[in-house]
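Hi team,

Below is the intake form for RDD family protein from Terrabacter terrae. Please confirm the fields before the structure is written into the shared record.

FORM ID: S-0412
PROTEIN: RDD family protein
ORGANISM: Terrabacter terrae
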Amino acid sequence: MSQHPSGWYDDPSNPDLLRYWDGVSWTNHTAPKKSPTASQSTIGLPQQGQVPADRTGASAPVPQGSGWQGRSQAPQQQGQGYVQQAPPEAQWMQTIRTTADGVPLASWGKRVAAWLIDGVIVAIIGGIIAWAVTPRLSELFSALVSAAEAGDQTKVVDIQNQLTGPVVQFSIVLWLVMTAYCLVFWTTTAQTPGKMALGISVRRAAQPGPLPVGTALMRRLVPLAGQFVPFLSLLDGLWPLWDDKRQALHDKAAGTQVVEGKQPRKQS
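The structure came back. Fields below:
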């Protein structure tokens, strides 16, 4: 595994650009080396208090293979140089929102697309399990349809009242299935299949890597509350649109952020 820290490095495919290395692989985020409006640029120079990437003098990472798209390839070291950090005062780079340590945040669109993919998978698995666990739900739905077709409104209302308990059970079973699904992936690769497909991952805001079990469980509390307060689920899903850290409410509860790229695996 590469030991290069995340940061902005010379783009292997374009000498006029910087490309963001997330600590594991190259991302799609690029920026010009020099500000279009600034006469001076400190990019590429060591910042105050900055430690070189390698005390022997290591260059910015250059992936093996053709261009930056050798994403899974570990970077090589040649020549001398420092980790290139985007200066915080560079206004021309502020459109790229990042974590406190500089990792680009995933867009709301990517998060929604990943959620839809995971939702389809969990709906298939959870639906089968939940239907088996709550057989009474199937019976009541069949009776409800029959009563509605017969025009018996009194019986329809009675069955609807009876459905309350099984529907709550069904919702809880689905939440448990989704929670188990998320915990397995968040605590191992930090990517559910949906996030893998979109090239994003979840991490603690203050530290990269897969989530601890406690943090992963905390991240599922808001969705649990949303089972009983539907408006909360909607608010939770839309919150990253206006949040400066692109966090949903469940991210704020757990102290997590969704970022571009993969997460470094836990050291054994």
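SUMMARY LINE: Residues 38-66, 70-92 have pLDDT under 50 and may be disordered.

Thanks, M.
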